[in-house]
Specification:
Helix content is 31%, strand content 19%. It is α+β, with helices and mostly antiparallel strands. Helix 5 (116-124) links the parallel strand 3 and strand 4. The longest helix has 15 residues, at 2-16.
Length: 212
């Protein structure tokens, strides 16, 4: 049932966002020509390999490396690339991956096929058994500013708590009287005790605000 819902939702979003997808494609062509999309081998559920699809934000012939391993990456990013990355617009083509069943909306970000350190850490915590997603618990808590150890800890937290719908929501509204949130399906979301509140961050995420 979840896979069918993902396929339907991703297809609807592709149709709705089509004008934006076309506009971004034009920006990339003007900036650096073809190709528009960037395909990269990633690790899926149970370490199956698939090609993730993103808008290209780097110059042609840039070496295929994880962001934290790339030297002088600012010199290799397209003029439009920083903007696309800042607002995660480059991730929108991954709706195709959701439709194909490669990833979910929510889940650990898929590791690169050659990112052995992260894959090994995820093996240790059984995270590789999860289907990856467009965004996950690590992304809304720091994204590329986190070390792979920190990312793995957040992914493990998601693995242990995902059934409580910490991240799965449609729309969230805050109760003025109580520091709780309710999504459109009626699930009450209460921040962990060390956090005072949380808010929508980016396209699909939630960020918690730590207590002072």
């Amino acid at each position: 049932m979840g896979n069918i819902l993902n396929k339907i939702t991703s297809l609807i979003l592709i149709v709705v966002l089509l004008p934006i997808l076309i506009l971004v494609s034009i920006f990339i062509i003007v900036d650096d020509g073809f190709p528009i999309f960037f395909k990269q081998k990633r690790v899926g559920k149970d370490k199956t390999i698939f090609n993730i699809i993103k808008f290209r934000t780097m110059k042609k012939n840039t070496k295929d490396l994880a962001t934290h391993l790339m030297k002088n990456q600012n010199n290799k990013i397209l003029r439009s690339g920083n903007f696309l990355r800042k607002y995660s617009i480059d991730e929108l083509p991954q709706l195709i991956n959701i439709f194909l069943g490669d990833i979910n909306f929510i889940g650990p970000r898929p590791a690169l096929f050659n990112q052995d350190d992260l894959i090994e850490l995820r093996d240790k915590y059984n995270i590789n058994h999860l289907k990856p997603g467009i965004t996950g618990w690590a992304q809304v808590n720091g994204r590329d500013s986190l070390s792979i150890e920190e990312k793995t800890k957040y992914d493990y937290y998601y693995l242990k708590n995902k059934n409580f719908r910490i991240l799965k929501f449609d729309k969230i509204k805050k109760h003025a009287e109580m520091n709780t949130f309710v999504d459109t399906k009626g699930y009450i979301l209460i921040p962990p005790t060390k956090y005072k509140s949380f808010f929508i961050d980016g396209f699909f995420g939630v960020r918690f605000i730590k207590n002072d």
